[in-house]
Amino acid sequence: MSSIFKECDIRGIYPEEINENLARKIGKAFAFFFEPQSVIVVGGDVRLSTPPLKKALIEGLVVGGLKVIDVGIVPTPLFYFIVETTAASGGLMVTASHNPPQYNGIKLAFGKMPPRPEDIQKIAKLVTEGKNLKRAKGELLATNEDWEKLYFSYLLERLPAPARPLKMVVDCGNGCYSGIATRFLRGFGHQVIELFCDRNGAFPNRSPNPALPQNLQKLSEMVRSHRANLGIAFDGDGDRVVFVDEQGRFVQAEHSMIFFIRNFVPSGSAFVYDLKCSNIVPQELEKKNCHPLPERSGHAYIKRRLIEEGAFMGGEISGHYFFGNLGRDDGLYAAALFSALLSRQETLLSEVLALYPEPHVTPDIRIPRDLEEHLVEKILETISSSEAELITIDGVKALWSDGWAMLRNSVTEPVYTLRFEATSPEHLRELVHRFLFKFPKVEKVVLEKIYST
């Protein structure tokens, strides 16, 4: 059971790892953090297991003495907006984000702040110990607010108007933004062609994870066939977004960040990015006299850093984009802002991106942890600080003059994530060997994954 309690959220396979009984216990444990009768917002994604889990979670919260606003099936950014608008003490969102359909989980909010790993571990401890956390019974509150209308107004107040309408294909992946994103973007002035925009928690058409180019083949085809200016794809719960240019080519997250940096981020401001990003992101920030703020990967870490540092914006290669004027990430806001900025360009998106530096960086390489137990610790014993600059705030990142290598534990799955950046594609194999030469079994798997794509 402990494996479902990750660093940034709670996540596992339904019903083997997460189920109604456990959700009820988590609700009671979460209530322990708040004064009795505090107000908590609960939402959920489109997954087939969400309704029973959400019902059980609410039962636990009410037994724990809290007042609960159930906002139904909503995208995660809209859920956060409701937590902030109601000034609720916190909130729980039943979702497994970009994970496959058999997964589900819970994202946590403490007011405007994300959870810390110690918060989630405290919940895990309370659940495991099975303490009697029952207090004076809470209640389920009724709400008649038109949250979508309020959310749209909130976004529009913070967005620049498009200079011209764009033709775009919007792929909601049958997830939470189905219907909502297309309504907003049409109201924003664009011509929208829908793809997979009916809610379906079985995700029959593509993986909920849009950050992999192979999951967006249909979107690419539709962009080309409709001669659209842009393709947009959301993940299952809507807090991640990725883009496709007018030629149907996947836009790397680093290039999306540079697009925002060049066209939106003011000179001298601070920008948070995850350590897995290519060097082209901090180099771009330095060109603009901005303050690069590297941070460990994970929504909660980057959101907290954005808030604490008062940063203007942040980005993560998974497709999360964070904005200081929101105090968080929002997939729909990022998509609308990207489209508004693109509408001001006199050239096609592919032509804009052709002027950006090309990173010689691998995609995320994911390998099971049981391939080599305690690999992060072993790498740290292998590479000395005299050989490379070592950054250890998120696993280990070794920096040399000719590139870097990174290894970290995934915060959502029992896997390691590796990434490498070399000064040239030809130099990549040597860099992988330099990092993993004492672990030939791991090196072999990593090289196979790199060169099979």
Automatic annotation (TrEMBL):
<dbReference type="InterPro" id="IPR005846">
    <property type="entry name" value="A-D-PHexomutase_a/b/a-III"/>
</dbReference>
<dbReference type="Pfam" id="PF02880">
    <property type="entry name" value="PGM_PMM_III"/>
</dbReference>
<dbReference type="InterPro" id="IPR016055">
    <property type="entry name" value="A-D-PHexomutase_a/b/a-I/II/III"/>
</dbReference>
<feature type="domain" description="Alpha-D-phosphohexomutase C-terminal">
    <location>
        <begin position="381"/>
        <end position="435"/>
    </location>
</feature>
<keyword id="KW-0460">Magnesium</keyword>
<keyword id="KW-0597">Phosphoprotein</keyword>
<dbReference type="InterPro" id="IPR005843">
    <property type="entry name" value="A-D-PHexomutase_C"/>
</dbReference>
<dbReference type="InterPro" id="IPR005841">
    <property type="entry name" value="Alpha-D-phosphohexomutase_SF"/>
</dbReference>
<dbReference type="InterPro" id="IPR005844">
    <property type="entry name" value="A-D-PHexomutase_a/b/a-I"/>
</dbReference>
<dbReference type="Pfam" id="PF02879">
    <property type="entry name" value="PGM_PMM_II"/>
</dbReference>
<feature type="domain" description="Alpha-D-phosphohexomutase alpha/beta/alpha">
    <location>
        <begin position="267"/>
        <end position="356"/>
    </location>
</feature>
<dbReference type="InterPro" id="IPR005845">
    <property type="entry name" value="A-D-PHexomutase_a/b/a-II"/>
</dbReference>
<dbReference type="Pfam" id="PF02878">
    <property type="entry name" value="PGM_PMM_I"/>
</dbReference>
<keyword id="KW-0413">Isomerase</keyword>
<keyword id="KW-0479">Metal-binding</keyword>
<dbReference type="InterPro" id="IPR036900">
    <property type="entry name" value="A-D-PHexomutase_C_sf"/>
</dbReference>
<comment type="similarity">
    <text>Belongs to the phosphohexose mutase family.</text>
</comment>
<feature type="domain" description="Alpha-D-phosphohexomutase alpha/beta/alpha">
    <location>
        <begin position="4"/>
        <end position="132"/>
    </location>
</feature>
<dbReference type="Pfam" id="PF00408">
    <property type="entry name" value="PGM_PMM_IV"/>
</dbReference>
<feature type="domain" description="Alpha-D-phosphohexomutase alpha/beta/alpha">
    <location>
        <begin position="152"/>
        <end position="248"/>
    </location>
</feature>
<protein>
    <submittedName>
        <fullName>Phosphomannomutase/phosphoglucomutase</fullName>
    </submittedName>
</protein>
<dbReference type="InterPro" id="IPR016066">
    <property type="entry name" value="A-D-PHexomutase_CS"/>
</dbReference>
